[in-house]
Amino acid sequence: MDQDPLSQGAAQNPASTSSWDAAEYARVGAFVAELGEAALDLLDPKPGERILDIGCGEGSLTKRIAERGATVLGIDNSPEMIAAAQAKGLDARLLDVADMAFAAEFDAAFSNAALHWVLEKERAAQAIFFALKPGGRFAGEMGGEGNIARLQQLVDEEMILRGYIPPTEAHNWYPAPEEFAAVYEAAGFREIDARLIERPTPLAHGVAAWVTTFRKGWLDRAGVPEEERAELAANVADRFGNSPADYVRLRFIMRKPN
């Protein structure tokens, strides 16, 4: 959705932003879907397969799965994102991954830049496992250990300088491969291949736009007024400089046993 949102919606997941502007996300965050192509190739959707896209956002990669001949259902916990996906003619449903109750309905599942927004990771892993048919695969990509560490540090420092306290609760799960694999192995998955990929990412629309788009929920929770955010974001951008964003991705594929 970094993405990076599933956009596991704020009402049920305090880690997420209060709401998403789907058009602004599509503009500022277009790189998320573009860089998600490698994970989509890892999934390798086949014609005739039924695939679940977890955290589909506004549907860019959902559409690409469908273009490969698969039947795809996208889920997301953001009403704004689901409306945008449905406007593209996609089968998209407002649903939190941890609350799914599908039973062996899908040949494969996919997720790009979404699972790091899901703090109920054990419930989510179990729900994904149950949603797959025996032998079904789950592939995707999310933020991994060390993801946007420098960017987040600067956002927090700038908030503190302005008298705001960064939320104490975690807002993202950026696991090491071993931690990630342990959660999904406990849910029943096998043949888990998870690895970190350092991926410095240029931000075409700048660091300030990234802050106001991808850290909106963080600023919401800290009570930063809208009228202060542009200046806060500009200061973060000045301090960060012209370096690419310090993205680290965790790319994975696994299988439900037959």
List the helices and strands and how they pair.
Elements: H1 22-28, H2 30-35, H3 37-43, E1 50-54, H4 60-67, E2 71-76, H5 79-87, E3 92-94, E4 106-112, H6 121-131, E5 132-143, H7 149-161, H8 177-186, E6 190-198, H9 206-214, H10 216-222, H11 226-240, E7 248-255
Parallel strand pairs: 1-2, 1-4, 2-3, 4-5
Antiparallel strand pairs: 5-7, 6-7
Helix pairs in contact: 7-11, 9-11
Query: How can the largest sheet be summarized?
Result: 7 strands, mixed
**Side-by-side strand order of the widest sheet:** 3-2-1-4-5-7-6
Instruction: Name the CATH superfamily assignment of one domain.
Output: Vaccinia Virus protein VP39
**What is the name of the CATH topology of one domain?**
Rossmann fold
Write the H/E string, N to C.
HHHEHEHEEHEHHEHHHE
Cα-atom radius of gyration? 17 Å
Helical element count? 11
- The pLDDT mean sits at 89
- Per CATH, the architecture of one domain is 3-Layer(aba) Sandwich
Percent range for helical residues? 25-40%
Q: What's the number of extended β-strand segments?
A: 7
User: Which structural class best describes the helix and strand composition?
Assistant: alpha/beta
Which consecutive residue ranges, at least 5 long each, have pLDDT under 50? Answer: 1-17
> How does the overall form come out from the CA principal axes?
globular
Residues in β-strands, percent: 15-25%
Q: Just give the CATH class of one domain.
A: Alpha Beta
Q: Give the termini separation.
A: 31 Å
